[in-house]
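Researcher: Here's my situation. A collaborator sent me these components and asked whether they could plausibly form a single complex. I don't have experimental data yet, so a predicted model of the whole assembly would be a useful starting point for our discussion.
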Amino acid sequence: MNGALDTFAAEVGGPAGGPVTCVGGRTQWDAGGPIAAGAREVRAPEGIVAYVPSEMTVQVRAGTPVSVLDEALAEHGQTVALPDWPGATVGGVLAVGRSGIRRLGYGPVRDTVLEVRAVTAAGAVVKAGGPTVKNVSGYDLCRLLVGSLGTLGFIGEVTLRTRPVAPTSRWVSGELDPFEALARLHRPTAVLWDGQTTWICLEGHPDDVQAQADLLDAAGVNGPPARPPHRWSLTPGELRHLPGRAAETGRFLAEVGVGLVHAERPPPARPVDPVVAALQRRVKAAFDPEGRMNPGRAPA
Amino acid sequence: MHDALIAELRAALAPDRVRDGALERTLYERDASHIRGDAAVICFPLDTAEVQACVRIALAHGRPFVARGAGTGLAGGAVPLGDPVVIVTTKMDRVLSVDPGALVAWVEPGVVNLDLDKQLAPLGLQFAPDPSSQQACTIGGNVANNSGGPHCLASGVTSAHVVALEVVLPDGAVTTLGGLDAEPDGYDLRGAFVGSEGTLGIATRIAVRLTPLAPEVATLLIGFPSVRDAAAAVSAIIAAGLVPAALEMMDQRITRAVEDFVHAGFPTDAAAVLLAEVDGLPAAVAAGTALVEEVGRAHGATSVQVARDRVERAGWWKGRKSAFGAIARIKPNYYLHDTVVPRGRLVDVLDAIDRIVEREDLIVMHVFHAGDGNLHPLLLFDAREPGVMDRVHAAGDEIVRVSVEAGGVLSGEHGIGLEKRDLMPLLFGPDDLDAQARLRDAFDPEHVANPQKVLPAGSRCGDLQAVPAGAWI
């Protein structure tokens, strides 16, 4: 029925295929812990299957590099709200589920996914969601798969919602109170803060971008500084207290309004409610009873 | 046995909040769909602990439970099947906290959608999903159905606006799914829960994401000489790179009915009317308004009006959202459908629907979310006419079929419930349904939470059954 996907499914195989791991661009390979030794490596197929710009959706195979997808979309003035880590694949960034630094404006990556075709632990191709921009037909397995680190199934192909590229995109920076700036602006694309300096991404109509920039005592810059390697997940309100936690975080760059902190030091382990932990185990067991999909890895 | 159940529920809640009188059982045997079930007992808890008590008592008596908000659901999702304990959340109607800085509010499930917006408006904030039933429907119901509304075109449906949920799980345990932090650990069980139609548990507190109100709003009302022209304009607007806040279409029948009813100022001579809204910062709104107008005129628009002020805008939206009330003047009963097709197929599918409806000798009106291809054909009939329901169902099933064949889906915002449960195989194969059943079973292996909904019989090793004979009304 679907050549590339069926080939991928055959490669993953059923329970007799043993432990198996799906490799993308390896840009976030540490997420969720190391893969158990001996797991066979597979790769999702590549290529754009269908793109109709007026529908603002694109159907793409999971092994496609995000940069390749973005180039195709840019020809029609569109983009997709996936992080553009160099070398990252569409399936990889969805399996990891981490957003890029424009999340404040673009929303989390999980909200870009309309339909998923994934290969299950039984080696079957399963479709979840639907190809239209709006759909509530059945359970939302798409969101369950995004961020599941391939432990419930390997994403083989997806339909994503695209978005228009903003007419103007501009970064400004200054020694501003980022919380006050966020309150003053109308839905900026990003507000980043290292405890002292604030970087703000403004996008939209050129006149609006200028008017918003004029509200700030900030100068134009090329972009934000490099992000420290570790991700802390805080609530937006907790970011105010970051300067007092410098000993824990080291140098940091916080996504104000989102709550994500890129920090020099790793985040402390967080307790998991035992009820949730038990539910997670039941979900894992339901989809992968033999534990063969990305063994060793856990999205927690 | 039944008496013991009632006694325990009354002891856990309060005697007057556990009802099993004939009147209440009749009131709660159905929702806004055309399907009827049987409510054994109806409970009105006030907080999480009472919801948990209801669930635990139901389990102890071997009864399933069915959660229910305002009962505005159109797909039979809240129809009680299996002699269940019905748990009504409408008395849990407090907005618990609003944090304008973090753009999040904790609410109880019984808060009415529009009431929440009224509380948020003075802060310059809103909860974006705005179903047409927003004067009555509850946030808990919105979560269960992953509800949409006209303004979900740009801002997304409920799932994009819920960050965390306190839930009572089908085994009676209470926990929180998701979180207020940026990237909660583990699987996105919050995402799986939203839209699960009460089959994975009951949400007892909901953390909703708040959206700042746009500084500038422009609303346009555009008349077209044909439905085809209006639909082509919809595609052209999106293709031009504009995602309006809302893009709604009404055909002439519904426009006239609404105009007679609420006098909104709709052009009754147009074959189709588009209600478009552009919001954001001033220059973008001005450019977007000009674009919509230009595209409209290029597609033969016979009239273009821009709302002069908030009052006129509110009047137009009132007209749009009261469309379903207006049609009672034409026929006493209606059946509202909900499918989605790719925008590019709108015209073909609308034509096909007209043919289906003609064949079944019914009347159809169209009022729908054109921007996201979300059709809402409204079939009008008189239920006293013998055999008419068979024709209504035949037409409905056929409408779903042509929508799916056109590359669409079964439902855009009403959900599957009972209405479309047995149509799920049109969209999903056996392996797809099996995967969905696995999720359901991980949460609720015994199928005690809203049994027999969403998934058809045999999705896994299920024990589901056909809609009971005589349930359709």
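Model: Some features of this prediction you could bring to your collaborator: Residues 331-441 of chain B form a domain with the Alpha-Beta Plaits fold (CATH 3.30.70.2740). Chain B touches chain A through 89 residues (CB under 8 Å).
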